[in-house]
From TrEMBL:
GO MF entries: Wnt receptor activity; Wnt-protein binding
Chain positions of LDL-receptor class B repeats: 1-43, 44-87
Record-linked PROSITE patterns: LDLRB (PS51120)
Source lineage: Eukaryota, Metazoa, Chordata, Craniata, Vertebrata
Gene: Lrp1b_0
Gene Ontology cellular component list: plasma membrane
SMART domains xrefs: LY
GO biological-process terms attached to the record: canonical Wnt signaling pathway
InterPro entries in UniProt: 6-blade_b-propeller_TolB-like (IPR011042), Cueball_EGF_LRP_Nidogen (IPR050778), LDLR_classB_rpt (IPR000033)
Annotated Pfam families: FXa_inhibition, Ldl_recept_b
Protein name: LRP1B protein
Amino acid sequence: KLFFTDYGNAAKVERCDMDGMNRTWIVDSKIEQPTALALDLINKYVYWVDIYLDSLEVVDYQGRNRHTIIKGRQIRHLCGLAVFESYLYTFNSDNLSILRINRYNGTDVQSLARLDNAKEIRVYQKRTQTAVRSHACEVDPYGMPGGCSHICLLSSNYKARTCRCRTGFILGSDGRSCK
């Protein structure tokens, strides 16, 4: 799945399959300007920062069990968000500091370091790097990913795929080749 925020005409947090299909709104009320987004892959939670409402919130992958982690002025300038163990990590663009926030109660907020001009933050941890299993976009004997001549996108699960073409090309009737 792909998770993303949108604050165009109607602000929301959404998810879809990797090929763009099955687009679903998981948060579409009491939300104004969602920016930073992070996933807890193990427990299946979505965290986001709303810089207009000065809030950091969480919801499960289906849009249920929504609650606010922390609210107030200290949220106003946050950009980037990452989850690791019991904490959320983010960057405050106002005072250029990396913050660590307890994701269960929001009370333990610590400034860890200062950085100039950061916009994102990522945490890489071996446990969150799932083992790759055979999938529909693997390279075939002819060197084409998933048998697609240009682009292979995983669909609703790892066994399904959708072929797409680069700009200027159209997908052939076989659903794999681009012309």
